User: What shape does this take?
Amino acid sequence: MRIMRRLDILCLAAAAYFAFAGIAPADGRAQGDGVPMLVHSHSDAMMAQHRAMDTIQKEWTLAKGALDEGRPLAAVGPVKAMERAAERIESFMLHKNPGGREEFSKQARDFKDLLSAFRQLLQASGAKDYDSERVRNTVMEVDRACDDCHQTFR
Ligand code: HEC
Assistant: This one.
């Protein structure tokens, strides 16, 4: 996290440097245009991925809280919100492991599938075949998916 913030600050510093360099470029070419724009959209993308993960974290806490209170149906909404936020994971910029795009995409897709299966289990709450044991195991699987992906990519 702290390293990410520092990267962002470095990017802003670079943007400022190139913006000024662009006013009077040493070699006479107008190269300042566009560079700050690029860096700007880079920061936007970083903000977007922080927000997606913040949402996932917040909703996951809500979902687990509802389950702890024995209210599986109340966990459905939070898990849906996680699924929506998880749609955005695949387009993340990878700072820690940029070469791992393929593996990252796979983990992002598996994560979405896991959440969707989890939501369907929860929605069956109240039905005769509701499987609370499987729900508990899936909670652990989701926690493991967070940790696995973070170990390689966060
Ligand atoms: C497929 C990969 C992947 C999965 C699955 C995943 N994360 Fe993340 N997470 C990331 C990456 C990459 C970052 C770093 C993003 C960044 O800093 O821009 C991150 C960052 C975070 C952060 C820090 C947010 C911030 O401000 O940057 C939190 C909190 C977080 N994840 C929570 C979770 C939780 C909780 C789960 C599981 C329920 C989860 N993540 C599942 C990849 C993943």
Remarks:
- The pocket of heme C is lined by residues 4, 46, 49-50, 53-54, 56-57, 60, 89, 92, 107-108, 111, 142, 145-146, 149-150, 153-154 (CB under 6 Å).
- DSSP finds five helices and no strands in the chain.
- Confidence is low (pLDDT under 50) at residues 20-34.
